[in-house]
Amino acid sequence: MNRRKIVSALEWVRPAGIFVIIFFANYFGTTPISRFHILGPFMAIFMCGSVAFESLALGEAASRKIGYPHNRAYQIQSGFANAAIAFTALLVYLLKWGIYADSTIVLAMLSFFCFSAINHVATAFLLGNLRPVNLLRPALSLLLVLVLLPYMVQALRQ
User: Fold this and answer.
1) Phi-psi region for residue 128, left (φ > 0), alpha (ψ -120 to 50) or beta?
2) Which domain holds residue 150?
3) What is the reported pTM?
């Protein structure tokens, strides 16, 4: 499978993965805290891990898909930042650091995706980058926030 196909497949794998994580969090979680302990870190591992993989291993194809100029140095830096979030989320989950660590890693992930969404909106308006995948990123980031925040708020209220 060539890199362009893998990058395109990731656009479908991410929503499917989110659905699977939500399903398992609700299936195995017996309390709001246990559901969020599954949902939060695994969502960060999956989302940031897939973005890190895309940035580090599929850079040029990923740039083309989104309509950005290829800048390998920036992609590597961004990829490692996402890998750091995914790695920290794995530690948070495995070491059971608690609801506040779960919430912190989710907020770090959501902050990145929200700031990235702002960048996508800016490139759409300022640079005329009207590729569908570029325009979808802000909506999908908002959807991710709307999915995760209720779980987090419920867990923090316990």
Assistant:
1) left
2) 3-157
3) 0.93
What is the token pair recorded at 13? 């794998």
Residue 114 · residue 139 · CB < 8 Å: no
pLDDT digit string (tens) for 123-146?
Answer: 999 999 999 888 999 999 999 999
Sorted by sequence, the CB contacts under 8 Å of residue 14 that are 6+ apart come out as 46, 47, 50
Rounded to a whole number of angstroms, the distance between the first and last alpha carbons of the chain is: 47
Q: How many domains does the chain have?
A: 1
Assess contact for 35 and 155: CB atoms under 8 A: yes
Please, which contacts does 66-72 make with residues 24 or more away whose CB atoms are closer than 8 Å? 66/120, 66/129, 66/131, 66/133, 66/134, 66/137, 67/123, 67/129, 67/131, 67/133, 67/134, 68/123, 68/129
